[in-house]
Amino acid sequence: MFGPFKPTSPLSSGLLWKIPWRLSPHQKARQRKRLRAVDSVVACVDTALKKQGSSMKEIERWKAEMPREEEMRPKDKYTIFDRKEKRYRKAIHKLPKWTRVSQRVNPPGF
Question: Which long-range contacts (CB under 8 A, 24 or more apart) does 12-21 make?
């Protein structure tokens, strides 16, 4: 079949995965938006609990351990640690379910 809808070439008896090697600017913007959305939910739950005079240890732990989106370096926003990679970093969109999993903390020095 010719044209834009031609089938992918099989690579050793399987389909060839077409994942680009870098994130597009639109994917980066959506990633930042997701990080900010999670930050706003955590802040909203925290303020609601403070109004009631209570707190949750999970929320306190999240605030203590996880950096906010504006505190993160671009390297941490768009890549994750992977010990199998050559330079120990892998683009975040190569991770399965990368839009649903929080990957904010990496090992120190990487």
Answer: 19/93, 19/94, 20/93, 21/91
Amino acid at 74: P
22 vs 58, 60, 79, 89, 102, CA distance in Å? Answer: 34, 34, 10, 12, 19
HSE-up (13 A, CA, CB side) for residue 39: 16
CA 85-87-89 angle, to 5 degrees, is: 65
Start-to-end Cα distance in the chain: 46
| Residue pLDDT tens, the chain, 110 long | 566 666 655 555 556 668 888 999 999 999 999 999 999 999 999 999 999 999 999 999 999 999 999 999 999 999 999 999 999 999 999 988 888 888 888 888 88
